[in-house]
Design brief:
Elements: H1 3-11, H2 13-24, H3 30-51, H4 61-75, H5 88-110, H6 115-131, H7 134-155, H8 163-167, H9 169-226, H10 241-272, E1 283-286, H11 287-297, H12 303-307, E2 309-315, E3 318-321, H13 323-338, E4 349-354, E5 357-362, H14 369-372, H15 390-400, E6 404-410, E7 414-420, H16 426-444, E8 448-452, H17 456-466, E9 472-476, H18 479-488, E10 493-497, H19 505-513, E11 524-529, H20 534-542, E12 547-550, H21 555-567, H22 577-580, E13 584-588, H23 592-604, E14 608-612, H24 615-623, E15 631-635, H25 643-652, E16 662-666, H26 671-680, E17 684-687, H27 692-703, H28 727-735, H29 739-762, H30 766-782, H31 786-802, H32 813-836
Parallel strand pairs: 2-4, 8-9, 8-10, 10-11, 11-12, 13-14, 13-15, 15-16, 16-17
Antiparallel strand pairs: 1-3, 4-5, 5-7, 6-7
Length: 837
């Protein structure tokens, strides 16, 4: 409501009175809807019922049919013409006045009063009390009763006020006053409960946001310390290699903190609105991979906190679910466990994966039995300052996955949360694999791919994984050869190893994007690396790459990642102008910073953008003409004319732009909000803060300039069936006839890498050891040596983060021991399989 409209209402008492009535029904006229339905049925029905008892003094059939008719019109609100809908509440006001005080008192007087007449009048008063605020209750009752008396006097040849009826009018007054007071007290109590709930929710969200905001602040401080000293002189400032890597690491940590903060907000809003998860977005996930990812990416306050959390895979398994939701479940459980570390310095947190269950156990204070029983209810928490929504959300996610979550705790000893998952059968896995391959084939058949890796065995295994999709696959052993091939042939995708001698993957990507291979400047590039942690994603995005695949990678997970990168390129967002170039988009947002960011994304893609801060400004821009618009982006919450009002005004207009595609920009993705936006004529939704890739994708869908790609493919990362070997991976190698050949290549190479690693560790040669560890992580994973892969990856990740080798002496020995055991197990496995054949 604008200031001018508010002033007009304040000057007009009748408008002010009606504004209270409108506010009373602002959250949906359900009371009016059900009242109209009941009135349409009851008025005629009770007329017939009365004739079964005695003949009426006054035949009010026409009056009842009239009331039924106006009730029916009120009931058909959704079928009203758009131009009449704004008058719905005014019409309902008149219906309530006619239906109850006027009708009931008039008919009571016509029937000569009596006990039934008094009861009917009291009933009418009660109904009005529940259909309006107290101010309008008084006005409706007085107006209706006076109108009834006047109509009675005008239409009756011998008007008389029944004595018993008049004598009971004081009772009516008492009923109205007491009923209004009761309703006022009830509404006040409800408002107070709502206020307390909102205050609790707001305080809880603020509490939950302190952690990610603190991490962002820490990242910004770390970025400041890593930058060179400021100067006003025009001179180059040099950053050391370690400083550059630190900047990327701090940037990645800051981005993770932002993501976690947004997840806290989304989780809270989803839980408050009971928003269900969409099973259509579920994928097949490895419990071990997902848990390791959660532990790696969780935003710890310190290295000490990180050292308290461990992960153990006893027996990996697949489950069907949504990775983001599952990660947040684990983040919430880890956060709860770490909450008590300051008071329990010896406490530890262990995440254990074992055949259909994930257990998160901490040796903290435990939870009292009386709290355990209600632990998963919303707004119930065992620690001060928590939202009480986290565990309720966890339970809702797990049940959406077909599983559940339970808690076991002994005070003073431990707390353990147990996540259980329904089994994924071998048949389901096989159907899933065939589905993935079929969808990937539809994307890649007859397309040309280039695999760039200095490891010949890895290139060979990657080629075998890509064979079923019938793509043309070329290989390059280093960066220079890759650039030469890119200069001679047109490729659809490059799968690029990052850690290569000479020219590394980052340098290759930089040369490609700089136009060294002109025909492939916009080629899709996917990093294929064992480099762990979120920093790798930030660096590959900065380098202009479109996706990242971690080594080792199963066939279906690799195909999914390649399809996803080809359909939704992340690093080439600034180059996606071919589809959006020249489009005209009208962007409305009252927040100047949000508007500026979205406008920058659009202009980077070659879109012509006009900006507006209000709905009124949008309508002015549209009415000004100047050519056709391809889309309108509307923030839902704007002062004055909101996004919903603006969308309705656009759709109700008679101009050529009434059918322009409208996208809602909103921070609230509740079902009610989306329903209201759709009803207003908005076709798509983008949740704030706006992601560039999502923005471009929505615009492509709306303008139909981009071909629709196949559905997102569900991942199924490797599953380890014992402590040393990933038997499923080895079985798939056997099925495609590569088992003996790959094991024969990998086992000697792993031994060579370990031997060189031991020598490099003796010289404390960080660069060489990091290169060797990178190769060992990739080779051991591809060979199915799962225990060796995990240990190598853990040490490599820590060394990458700390920029130094492990301090303890003999750190290579566990790696060498596992390498020896894995080699023996691999050879025995090949021998058993050969004997079985």
């Amino acid at each position: 409501m604008s200031g001018h409209e508010r002033s007009a209402i304040e000057m007009n008492p009748l408008k002010k009175l009606f504004s209270h009535y409108k506010a009373y029904h602002a959250h949906g006229p359900l009371l009016l809807y059900y009242t109209s339905l009941v009135g349409f049925i009851v008025f005629p029905a009770f007329y017939l019922l009365r004739f079964t008892k005695s003949a009426p003094v006054y035949d009010d059939l026409n009056f009842r049919l009239f009331n039924a008719a106006i009730c029916f019109i009120l009931f058909l609100k959704n079928r009203w013409p758009e131009r009449l809908k704004p008058y719905y509440l005014a019409y309902s006001y008149a219906v309530v006045l006619i239906l109850f005080p006027l009708t009931f008192m008039f008919t009571s007087l016509k029937h000569g009063g009596g006990t039934i007449a008094v009861g009917n009048t009291l009933l009418a008063a009660f109904v009005v009390i529940f259909l309006a605020d107290w101010r309008n209750v008084v006005v409706i009752l007085l107006t209706g009763f006076c109108a009834a008396i006047g109509l009675y006097v005008l239409t009756d040849p011998d008007p008389r006020m029944p004595a018993d009826y008049v004598q009971r009018l004081p009772i009516l007054l008492v009923v109205v006053v007491c009923g209004s007071l009761f309703k006022f007290a009830l509404e006040s109590a409800t408002a107070e409960r709502v206020r307390h709930a909102y205050a609790s929710l707001a305080g809880s969200i603020a509490h939950e946001m302190r952690n990610p905001l603190g991490q962002i602040r820490h990242s910004l401080e770390s970025l400041r310390q890593s930058l060179p000293a400021p100067t006003l002189k025009a001179q180059a400032q040099v950053l050391q290699p370690g400083d550059v890597d630190a900047l990327y690491r701090h940037l990645a940590q800051g981005e993770i903190a932002v993501e976690r903060g947004l997840q806290v907000i989304s989780m809270t809003l989803d839980e408050v609105n009971a928003k269900p998860l969409n099973p259509g977005g579920f994928a097949y996930l490895s419990a071990s991979e997902a848990c390791h990812k959660a532990v790696l990416e969780y935003g710890y306050d310190s290295h000490e906190q990180r050292s308290r959390v461990s992960v153990e895979t006893v027996k990996d398994f697949l489950f069907r679910g949504e990775e983001t939701a599952f990660l947040f479940v684990l983040f919430n459980l880890i956060k709860n466990a770490l909450y008590y570390l300051p008071a329990y310095p010896q406490a530890r947190v262990a995440v254990t994966i074992d055949a259909g269950t994930v257990k998160v156990r901490d040796t903290g204070p435990g939870i009292a039995p009386e709290l355990q029983r209600r632990l998963f209810e919303p707004f119930r928490t065992s620690k001060s300052g928590g939202t009480g929504l986290g565990l309720a959300y966890c339970r809702r996610v797990m049940r959406a996955f077909g599983g559940d979550i339970a808690c076991e705790s002994v005070q003073g000893e431990y707390t353990q949360f147990i996540l259980t998952f329904p089994p994924v059968t071998a048949q389901e896995r096989e159907v899933h694999r065939h589905t993935v391959v079929a969808k990937a084939k539809a994307v890649f058949v007859r397309r040309r791919l280039l695999v760039v890796d200095d490891d010949a065995a890895l290139r060979k295994s990657t080629r075998m994984k890509l064979a079923p999709v019938e793509a043309v696959v070329d290989e390059a052993a280093d960066g220079k050869q890759a650039l030469a091939m890119l200069s001679n042939f047109r490729y659809d995708l490059v799968l690029l190893d990052l850690n290569m001698p000479g020219m590394d993957g980052y340098a290759v990507a930089e040369q490609i994007r700089a136009g060294q291979a002109p025909g492939n400047r916009d080629v899709c590039i996917v990093a294929y690396t064992g480099e762990p942690g979120p920093a790798a994603r930030v660096k590959t995005l900065k380098a202009g790459m479109d996706g990242l695949v971690n080594k080792p990678c199963e066939q279906d997970a690799l195909l999914r990642a390649l399809c996803e990168a080809l359909e939704h390129p992340a690093g080439r967002a600034r180059l996606e102008h071919g589809e959006l170039e020249g489009q005209r988009v009208l962007l409305a947002d009252d927040n100047a910073y949000s508007r500026k960011a979205v406008a920058a994304y659009l202009r980077r893609a070659g879109v012509e953008v006009a900006e507006a801060a209000t709905g009124e400004a949008v309508m002015a821009q549209l009415n000004a003409g100047g050519g056709a618009w391809d889309a309108v982006l509307l923030d839902i919450n704007m002062p004055g004319m909101s996004g919903l009002d603006t969308a309705q005004a656009i759709r109700a207009s008679s101009t050529a732009w009434r059918d322009v595609p409208i996208v809602a920009l909103t921070a609230h993705s509740s079902a009610d909000m989306m329903g209201a936006a759709r009803a207003a004529g908005m076709g798509e939704f983008i949740t704030k803060p706006v992601d560039a890739a999502v923005l471009y994708g929505k615009l492509r869908q709306l303008t139909s300039r981009a071909p629709a790609g196949p559905a997102t493919l569900p991942p199924a990362p490797p599953r380890a069936d014992d402590r040393l070997l990933d038997v499923d991976r080895l079985e798939r190698y056997r099925e495609i006839g590569m088992l003996e050949e790959l094991v024969g290549d990998y086992v000697p190479e792993i031994a060579r890498l370990v031997e060189r690693l031991d020598a490099g560790a003796g010289r404390n040669d960080l660069a060489q050891c990091m290169e060797l560890m990178h190769s060992l992580v990739g080779l051991s994973g591809e060979a199915g040596a799962v225990a060796l892969h995990r240990l190598s990856k853990q040490i490599y990740a820590q060394a990458s983060q700390d920029h130094r080798l492990p301090a303890q002496a003999g750190w290579v020995e566990p790696i060498a021991l596992l390498a020896s055991q894995s080699a023996r197990a691999l050879n025995e496995y090949v021998g058993r399989e050969a004997g079985a054949v």
